[in-house]
Design brief:
The complex is a heterodimer of chains A (308) and B (291). Chain A has eleven helices and 14 strands. With 308 residues, chain A is α/β, with parallel strands linked by helices. Chain A has two domains: 222 residues, P-loop containing nucleotide triphosphate hydrolases (Rossmann fold); 80 residues, Alpha-Beta Plaits, CATH 3.30.70. The two termini of chain A are 31 Å apart. The N terminus and C terminus of chain A are likely disordered. Chain B has one domain. In chain B, 69% of the residues lie in helices and 3% in strands. A two-stranded antiparallel ribbon of chain B has the order 1-2. In chain B, a hairpin with a 2-residue loop joins strand 1 and strand 2. In chain B, helix 2 runs antiparallel to helix 4 and helix 8 crosses helix 9. Chain B starts with a helix and ends in a 5-residue tail after the last helix. In chain B, 41% of the residues are buried. Classes of the chains: A alpha/beta (308), B mainly alpha (291). The structure holds adenosine-5'-triphosphate and magnesium ion (MG). Magnesium ion binds next to helix 1 of chain A. Magnesium ion (MG) binds next to helix 1 of chain A.
Chain lengths: 308, 291
């Protein structure tokens, strides 16, 4: 589904891993973000979202794997890449003893942006112009979150990475941020990678997403397909999986085969097509041991989808 | 690079703690000056009594130059704490605030970021010493007037002509600057390992204090280490007040008794600065930023 040769890829992560002592925080993770995506990065607390984002921003060194952004290797073209990226990592911590405007000026300069108007523009964008000259220490959490986003946007980056941007916001604040992301994506043509632990939040803004659990990829794809109630994903167990794969690959079901991290045979298809699949499998002389429906999102987010 | 230095200086001089050091220096100096202004004559006369029998001391012994010497001797021992207050916070403070990840994810190499921070903290150190010079030297001169500098070092009395003093102070302050930048670079190095500034400040002070004690113990075991402790060399500024004695037992104007030793000390300090800085860069480049 995701060809790594896709030249439109803004982020390409392959086989990424990070080990802290004996704890595997990120494990053989691969995904790709395309230009113009609002890409959802989902996982429960401790799934490895922030760790991955830190690796994307060169804050920590991957134990294994590679990261390419804008078609360049991050370890070799760090500055070039980061000049085109804006980010909020975990909490939007800023200099409390400086004003919002001063914080923005520092970050703009560090990103090589000298346009003074950019600061006013971005303050307007996040709706913080009125408090821009107060010290950040006096800001509410929601205002800090907005200022953090403003700092990520001030140098007009092509890619914006936001780590749980709606943490600690009230419903209105959450809606504001959501609208801001959608607006910047549609009108500004920016690409977003947004992490969250709420599927309900992601489905409102993301067009594609990856879900990770314990540092491993659970599933990646278009939100439309992943969330479509008419789509069914099944795992197939047969007497001879190798042969089954060969036969499926030659059949009209080939396009429905998906990667599975555990190496099982996985197919994604319309619910209505399941009987047909079973019939054709028997015609192909495949001996079915089990056909298991796999509700990836619901299984995984069972408890979480209700929240938020 | 200049951009980073400017940003860092801006941050340093917007932090309240920066002014603690400037305030403390001024306060200590004023107190000493006040004390001597009120009671100084009797104090000095008492000290000179023994001398005036054998020596012929003319003019005002208690003058601005002597004041500056007394103040420097008392103050320079404590300035490392004030230096560490800011330098020990340069990286650790940002880690604690959570802004280090902001800086380190910008298109600026870690080496440049660190060197920029180091230069900024050095500028602060220099600024503090200039501030100190203003109060210890120039304010003292204004308050007490200028005359020959008479100082006593381990039973030996040196009298330096007033015309021969000013350049010695310039050199002494220059040397003290190198010494304080050494402390600054140590605090800076330690600040890379911590997530708040208390640890690096205390660690820096502990190292300075322990080394100073080893210095002053005079035990043979530590004497071999002495030339290698940077604290030994930090006192090198006093060397500029040792005047060479000519063949007729007269002082040679504009001379320093043991200039090579003073320069060697300065070189040792510069060596320490470069070493601390190199280790800082090496560590910081490899560091995972988890704060
Ligand atoms: N500095 C560290 N040392 C050791 N383990 C760490 C460190 N930082 C994170 N971890 C571990 O790595 C795993 C992934 O953490 P991470 O912060 O990436 O999760 P997350 O998906 O961002 O979670 P959350 O939703 O809570 O922000 C966790 O098990 C965490 O305990
Ligand atoms: Mg996180």
């Amino acid at each position: 589904m995701d060809s790594s040769a896709d030249s439109g890829a803004v982020i390409e992560v392959a086989g990424l891993g990070k080990v802290y002592g004996s704890l595997v925080a990120v494990d053989d993770l691969s995904f790709s973000v395309r230009r113009g995506d609002v890409y959802g990065f989902l996982g429960q607390n401790g799934a490895g979202k922030s760790t991955t984002i830190r690796m994307l921003l060169t804050l920590i060194r991957p134990t294994s794997g590679s990261i390419r952004m804008f078609g360049m290797d991050i370890s070799r073209h760090r500055s070039e890449i980061l000049a085109r990226v804006g980010a909020v990592i975990e909490k939007p911590d800023l200099y409390g003893y400086l004003t919002g405007r001063e914080n923005l000026r520092i970050l703009a300069r560090l990103s090589g942006c000298r346009d003074r108007k950019a600061i006013d523009r971005v303050l307007d964008t996040v709706g913080l112009a009125a408090r821009a000259d107060d010290r950040v220490r006096t800001y509410s959490q929601g205002m800090r979150q907005r200022l953090g986003i403003a700092c990520a946007l001030v140098h007009d980056p092509e890619l914006v990475i936001l780590d749980e941007p709606t943490n600690g916001l009230d419903p209105q604040g959450i809606a504001d941020i959501r609208n801001l992301i959608l607006r910047l994506s549609r009108e500004g043509g920016k690409t977003f990678l947004v992490s969250s632990h709420l599927l309900s939040e992601m489905e409102l803004i993301a067009n594609r997403m990856v879900i990770i659990d314990k540092g491993r990829k659970v599933v990646e794809g278009e939100c439309r397909t992943l969330l479509d109630p008419e789509r069914q994903v099944v795992h197939l167990e047969t007497m001879d999986d190798v042969q089954t794969r060969v036969r499926l690959a030659r059949s009209r079901w080939a396009a429905h085969i998906e990667d599975d991290p555990q190496g099982r045979i996985r197919l994604s298809l319309d619910r209505a097509d399941v009987p047909q699949l079973v019939r054709e499998l028997s015609d192909m002389d495949v001996q079915i041991l089990a056909l298991r429906p796999f509700n990836r999102l619901e299984d995984y987010f069972l408890s979480l989808t209700q929240a938020g | 690079m200049w951009t980073i230095v400017r940003i860092e200086l801006f941050k340093i001089f917007r932090k309240p703690r920066t002014y603690i050091a400037f305030g403390a220096v001024a306060a200590i100096v004023w107190l000493i000056q006040l004390g001597f202004y009120v009671d100084g004559e009797t104090y000095v006369q008492f000290g000179m009594q023994a001398l005036s029998e054998t020596f012929d001391v003319e003019g005002r012994v208690l003058n601005g130059y002597l004041m500056a010497y007394i103040i420097l001797q008392t103050l320079l021992v404590h300035v490392p704490l004030l230096i560490a207050l800011v330098s020990g916070d340069m990286v650790s403070g940002e880690a604690g605030m959570g802004t280090l990840r902001l800086l380190a994810s910008r298109p600026v190499s870690r080496t440049r970021l660190l060197l920029g921070k180091f230069l900024a903290s050095s500028v602060y150190t220099v600024a503090l010493l200039v501030w100190m010079a203003i109060w210890t030297l120039f304010f003292s001169l204004w308050l007490f007037g200028a005359d020959d500098l008479v100082i006593m070092k381990s039973e030996v009395v040196t009298q330096i002509l007033r015309s021969d003093v000013m350049w010695r102070y310039a050199a002494a302050f220059g040397f003290a600057t190198i010494a304080m930048v050494t402390v600054s670079s140590l605090a800076f190095l330690l600040s890379i390992f911590a997530e708040n500034s208390i640890g690096p400040i205390i660690a820096t002070m502990s190292i300075v204090i322990v080394f100073t004690i080893l210095n002053s113990l005079g035990l043979p075991l530590f004497d071999t280490a002495k030339p290698w402790l940077f604290t030994t060399h930090m006192l090198g500024w006093k060397g500029f007040f040792d005047v060479q004695v000519g063949p007729g037992n007269e002082q040679v104007v504009g001379s320093v008794e043991n200039l090579p030793a003073v320069l060697r000390s300065a070189a040792m300090l510069v060596g320490h600065i470069l070493l601390f800085l190199a280790v800082s860069v090496a560590v910081f480049r490899r560091k995972d930023i988890l704060s």
